[in-house]
Amino acid sequence: MDKMKKYSELYKEELLGNIIPFWMKHSKDNVGGGYFTCLDQHGKVFDKDKFIWLQGRQVWMFSMLYNNVEARQEWLEMAEHGADFLKKYGRDAEGNWYFSLDQHGKPLIQPYNIFSDCFASMGFAALYKANSKDEYADIAKNTFENIINRRNNTKGKYNKIYPGTRDLKNFSLPMILSNLSLELEHILDPKLVNTLIEDVIHEVMEVFYQPESGLILENVYQDGTFADCFEGRLVNPGHVIEAMWFIMDLGIRIKSQPLIDKTIEIALNAIEYGWDKDFGGILYFKDIKGYPPQQLEWDQKLWWVHVEALVCMAKAYHVSGNERCKIWFEKLHEYTWKHFRDAEYGEWFGYLNRKGEVLLPLKGGKWKGCFHIPRALYQVWKTLEHEPANLVALK
Amino acid sequence: MDKMKKYSELYKEELLGNIIPFWMKHSKDNVGGGYFTCLDQHGKVFDKDKFIWLQGRQVWMFSMLYNNVEARQEWLEMAEHGADFLKKYGRDAEGNWYFSLDQHGKPLIQPYNIFSDCFASMGFAALYKANSKDEYADIAKNTFENIINRRNNTKGKYNKIYPGTRDLKNFSLPMILSNLSLELEHILDPKLVNTLIEDVIHEVMEVFYQPESGLILENVYQDGTFADCFEGRLVNPGHVIEAMWFIMDLGIRIKSQPLIDKTIEIALNAIEYGWDKDFGGILYFKDIKGYPPQQLEWDQKLWWVHVEALVCMAKAYHVSGNERCKIWFEKLHEYTWKHFRDAEYGEWFGYLNRKGEVLLPLKGGKWKGCFHIPRALYQVWKTLEHEPANLVALK
Predict the structure, then answer these.
(1) Phi and psi for A355 in degrees, rounded to 5?
(2) Using the beta-carbon criterion (under 8 Å), do B99 and A160 form an inter-chain contact?
(3) Phi-psi bin for A310: left (phi > 0), alpha (psi -120 to 50), beta?
(4) Strand duo A351-352 + A301-302: pairing
(5) Are strands B301-302 and A215-216 parallel, antiparallel or unpaired?
(6) One digit per residue, pLDDT tens: chain B, 395 residues?
């Protein structure tokens, strides 16, 4: 068997034999509804709060498995279990999604964070594919419209930036929209999807992308120029790499070879830039001018950065046959499986220090849930299942 | 010479020979006004934004030196240089202090953070002692009144907590008020000062203090009971230790030996609880139940934690003669001077990783300015100048 195909088998086995059973076993809250995500090394619940990002993402994950892997009833039930909780408790009177709820669904943190809405919308859209209740499509669509309406001031009254002095825009929203545009394609007007795709490609590849460095910045002036301040100098290599596979998927969708080539080039730049030459792994944050970043966690190694990089390099290699992508895939594979995977108690660690030692022994928390690792395992499995080949249709 | 007295000399020399000259040389912004605080290892400015916490604290620092060490004109000028900038640009129309401004004083971040007001008030109050312009006293007093008015919802409209589900209160404000009450004594109504002192002692020593653990929590329910959530489980040992020397000072002020004894007991608990048995130094955050904290920087070693612990143990030893305090002072001294001090380029580093290696090579930034280190050096110098002795007046 071809070596890359062996990886495909391995990633499939890890997804279905380790990760998904872990969340099936430990995360369902049969008392309060929804999912527990704060799970210690053994899977034991150490905190019962419900974070909307992670609730929505887990609904998406189990729906996606049901839709794309196998129509297992237990997966659909798990997705609907989370969706029921979200539907009942997740939104304020205006339809904005709270940031967090307590175990029983009472709101804790107000809807200041639009990514709650993004992941809720994504979850309900995937669930609608699995079980086409109109209600699910409506929630996904209404939430999406609300995101579009809020996109110019996503934090609303919680926005602490004084207007007019230094109006920056942030990379996270266009990045998520590049993924959402495909995730929601089946419930949106095709014209809207096309406009959206055009728009996010422009934002990511022309506004946020900086030709001088070959990298993407987290925050730029409205016209895409560089702002010499903490926010403006910030590079989050993991964000760049993850965004590049989102845009690569869009490149395949719109059949644009130059776009695909560009995403591979930028992704390789970001991996090389973010790679820690001293201790291995990809750094969490860097300052583009080499100054001390304000993020104290800048030198840590995070699970999502590494698994998204694996997805990106697997896709890049598959679509281009570029050997550099294969080399990086294998290097990332080695680091990631060695340091993040917990061979003893299942699932993977999320947070390592610079040297690759476990910083927090949790399997899930406020930000790590049932999402990046299983999605990445699925993506690598599916991508490497078939022989690497340029996309014939694009040639 | 007595060993503790030698420390006094050393701390004085470090303050006047290293730290203060560093800030005199590198931090004055003669173009935009106020102070640069983002200084790299060599003292070079790497970012020009002005953070109100640090502007106010530096005004305080130079005023305090002028008031208490020596009436050097250059120190008064330095203080007034920062005060002019603050006065002109620091407040919104309602007198709330912004969080940050750009180099030339244009507001960047709205007044969501009441500690900006606390440090501005403290700065102007100290400056009024040095140069008794009514204007300085007015700014300090008006700001202080505003703090008191805002104390039940310090973040105002920027408060993201949903009311009623889990109403916690946070330790930071009573902690700062315990220090402010003495810092502003000369400009406030004595009755107000007495009420305030009584109030903060009650808050810190009865509401936030937890008899079972012997520690102080960062967030508790309104009645002081324990909240089993990320915020409620959080211990910031450095905060506890710093607060204990503030309250110890109040204990001396109100001549209460039991209060002084209690602060020493809690401070020793906090140091022992926070001390990193594996690598030395005091950890930044811990979860009281031993769960993973949400702060990714939990295992780092921060300058302010260590220098405030030095102040606390010096004062505790001086006021009680307790040998445990002396032992801790010396252990802390050894760790702190070895790891934080930069023998090569002056001043001290602020952020170390768990192993005591430099994490960010800066001398000043968004949160580290001309404050904790010089204040601590001054406090240790003055405290250990005289023989250790119980306070005769209290016996």
Answers:
(1) -80, 0
(2) yes
(3) alpha
(4) antiparallel
(5) unpaired
(6) 688 999 999 999 999 999 999 999 999 999 999 999 999 999 999 999 999 999 999 999 999 999 999 999 999 999 999 999 999 999 999 999 999 999 999 999 999 999 999 999 999 999 999 999 999 999 999 999 999 999 988 999 999 999 999 999 999 999 999 999 999 999 999 999 999 999 999 999 999 999 999 999 999 999 999 999 999 999 999 999 999 999 999 999 999 999 999 999 999 999 999 999 999 999 999 999 999 999 999 999 999 999 999 999 999 999 999 999 999 999 999 999 999 999 999 999 999 999 999 999 999 999 999 999 999 999 999 999 987 655 444 44
Interface contacts (A, B; CB < 8 Å) = 103
Q: How many residues does chain A have?
A: 395
B158 vs B160: CA distance, rounded Å? 6
Q: How far is CA A305 from the centre of its chain?
A: 9
Reported as half-sphere exposure (CB side, CA atoms, 13 A), residue B135 has a value of 8
Q: What is the DSSP letter of A370?
A: S
A278 touches chain B (CB under 8 A): no
Q: How far is CA A6 from the centre of its chain?
A: 25
Answer whether A343 touches B (CB < 8 Å).
Answer: no
Residues in chain A closer than 8 A to B298 (CB atoms): 360
Phi then psi for residue B363, to 5 deg, are -100, -20
Query: Which residues on chain A are in Cβ contact (under 8 Å) with B294?
Result: 365-366
How buried is B128 (Cβ within 10 angstroms: 0-12 exposed, 13-18 middle, 19+ buried)? buried
- Environment class of residue B70 by beta-carbon count within 10 Å: exposed (0-12), middle (13-18) or buried (19+)? exposed
Task: State the Cα–Cα distance between residues B161 and B168, nearest whole angstrom.
Answer: 9
Judge whether B343 is closer than 8 Å to chain A, CB to CB: no
Cα–Cα distance between B242 and B266 in angstroms, integer? Answer: 11
Strands A100-101 and A50-51 come out as antiparallel
Listing DSSP states for A227-238 in one string gives --SHHHHEE-HH
Of B102, B108, B365, the CB nearest to A294: B365
The beta-strand segments (E) located in B137-255 are: 168-170, 209-210, 215-216, 219-221, 234-235
b/e B234-248 (16+ beta carbons within 10 angstroms → b): bbbbbbbbbbbbbbb
Q: What is the ipTM of this complex?
A: 0.95
Judging contacts by C-beta atoms under 8 Å, the chain B residues touching residue A166 are: 102, 108
The secondary structure of residue A369, as a DSSP letter, is -
Cβ A299–B359 below 8 Å, yes or no?
yes
Q: Tell me whether residues A296 and B46 touch, CB distance under 8 A.
A: no
Q: Does A98 touch chain B (CB under 8 A)?
A: yes
Chain A within 8 Å of B353 (Cβ-Cβ)?
Answer: yes
In order, the DSSP letters of A293-361 are PS-TTTT-EEHHHHHHHHHHHHHHHHHH--HHHHHHHHHHHHHHHHHTB-TTTSSB--EE-TTS-EEE-
Q: Which residue of B has its CA nearest to A365?
A: B294
- Assess contact for A350 and A359: CB atoms under 8 A: no
Residue B2 phi, psi (nearest 5): -55, 145
Q: List the beta bridge partners of residue B221.
A: B168
Which residue(s) pair with B220 in the sheet?
Answer: B169
Exposed e or buried b per residue across B273-297, where buried means at least 16 C-beta atoms within 10 angstroms of its C-beta: bbbeeeebbbbbbbbbeebbbbbbb
A90 within 8 A of A98, measured Cβ to Cβ: yes
Q: What are phi and psi of B258, to 5 degrees?
A: -60, -40
Is the CB of A160 less than 8 angstroms away from the CB of B354? no
DSSP result, A165-209: T--EEESHHHHHHHHHHHHTGGGS-HHHHHHHHHHHHHIIIIIIE
A366·B106 Cβ contact <8 A: no
B370 in Cβ contact with B57 (< 8 Å): yes
Q: How far is B235 from chain A, CA to nearest CA, in Å?
A: 16
